[in-house]
Structures are given as C-alpha cells and as structure tokens.
Design a protein that fits this description.
Blueprint lengths: L4 E2 L8 H7 L4 H7 L11 E2 L6 E11 L4 H6 L8 E7 L5 E3 L1 H9 L4 E8 L2 H7 L3 E6 L11 E2 L3 E3 L2 E3 L4 E5 L2 E5 L4 H23 L4 H4 L3 H6 L13
Parallel strand pairs: 1-8, 3-4, 4-6, 5-6, 6-7
Antiparallel strand pairs: 2-7, 3-8, 3-11, 9-10, 11-12
Helix pairs in contact: 2-6
C-alpha cells in the first residue's frame, strides 16, 4: 500500500476563476461540462440554501476513524472545501461541532463528506455548510492513518487536491483543475443560451417546438387525443 501522508501545500485555482464560478450553480456547471463530475445524489446539505465554491482539500480516512480529518486542519487555507472519503463504507459521525469550529477558524467554506456527521443542530447554528450522506451519532476512533491531499473518490467521483468543488441544494459537482478555464467559458455560453430560451418562454413559445421535439413524438408513435376522442 502506498505510504500514508499529509501534503501541506497544493496548487489551487486562481482566485479570479473561483470568484467567477460563484455566479453560477451546480446544475448549470454540470450540464456545461458535458454532464460529468456530479457526485452521488445521497450527499445532501444539512442547511438548505447553502452554497460553496472552492478548491478541494482531499482527505481519505479509514471507515469509522477521523484521525486524518484532524490532520487536514493543518493543511487547509481560507476558501478551501474539505472533501472527505473513506476506505470502507462508513456512516459514523466523522465530523461534529468541534471539528467544524476548527475548520471555520481556518476559513474553510464547508465540507463534502461521503460518510456521516453529527451535532447537526450546532452545525446549523454555526451556519457551517456540510454535505453528507448520513446523520448519525456513532462515534469514531482516532488511530488509523490515511491521506491528506492525495487523489480520492468521493461520492463516486475521483477528486484531486485543488480541483474546484461547487455545492448547493442541487448537489455537488467537481470541476477538474486542468479544465477550469474551459468549463468556465462553456458555462458562460450555456447561461447565454438559457437567456434566449427564457425569452422564448416569456413570448409564449412551446419547448416542444423550439427544441424540435415533435419529430421524436412521432417516431415514438405518441398521438394527441382530446376528451371526445379517447379510443386510440
């Protein structure tokens, strides 16, 4: 097995790019980059209306052990997003109020964790955004090594340290660091196209027409009926 380590320094995206991405949302970016990078649907926010966007600090823990989360606190910088995965399935409460407070003191925007959390009432009072797959009080150990800032798989998606992570009520999406400029331009173009669609809707046009979907209905042998013609 590869040596376990804590990498303190990583290359982060330019702050200007991160700031521009903050104008958009998860669904738009996911669609713009070709419907890739979306983490599993069971990673849900504990605070509705939360939004975070920043570089990933990746943590790989052994299931039921949060030692490496404590180690990661030394590596984070303001604006980072902590991304936590586990080796082995885990629903333990890996993060609670105390770790959240420590991360907030370091300026971390929030946490994406493919495991459980606890102290949710306190986390909500703190206003600390977390996306997790479970809320469960089961405690953890702190005696098994892992990795900080190594590539990991969280929510079914490989994430490298420094990748851009965006999360909102729709879920969590990863933008590869090497693709940030390209995805940003694709996102801008998608938003412009959506403005045109919104204008068509406002003018009373039907999506079935401006998306040219009637031929597909015909191909699928979908027929139109009315109240007086139900025998088809």
């Amino acid at each position: 097995m590869m040596n376990r380590y804590v990498r303190l320094n990583i290359e982060r995206p330019e702050k200007a790019f991160v700031k521009e991405f903050m104008d958009y949302d998860v669904s738009t970016v996911y669609e713009a980059q070709g419907k890739i990078g979306l983490l599993n649907y069971d990673l849900r926010p504990i605070i509705e209306g939360s939004f975070i966007c920043g570089p990933a600090i990746t943590v790989t823990c052994m299931a039921g052990d949060n030692l490496m989360i404590h180690a990661a606190i030394e590596a984070v910088q303001p604006g980072d997003v902590l991304v936590v995965s586990t080796i082995g399935e885990s629903h333990h409460g890996m993060i609670g109020e105390l770790i959240a407070r420590a991360l907030m003191e370091k300026g971390v925007q929030g946490v994406i964790i493919d495991a459980g959390i606890r102290d949710v009432k306190q986390l909500r009072k703190l206003g600390f955004p977390v996306w997790s797959k479970a809320i469960y009080s089961q405690g953890t150990t702190k005696n098994r090594g892992g990795w900080v800032n190594a590539p990991c798989v969280c929510g079914g998606v490989q994430i490298n340290p420094g990748d851009l992570i965006m999360a909102d009520d729709d879920g969590v999406v990863r933008i590869k660091s090497v693709n940030i400029e390209t995805v940003l331009e694709l996102t801008k173009k998608r938003v412009e196209r959506e403005k045109i669609v919104k204008s068509k809707i406002k003018n009373g046009e039907l999506s079935i027409d401006f998306y040219n979907l009637r031929p597909i209905l015909e191909k699928e042998e979908v027929v139109y009926i009315d109240f007086f013609n139900v025998n088809v």
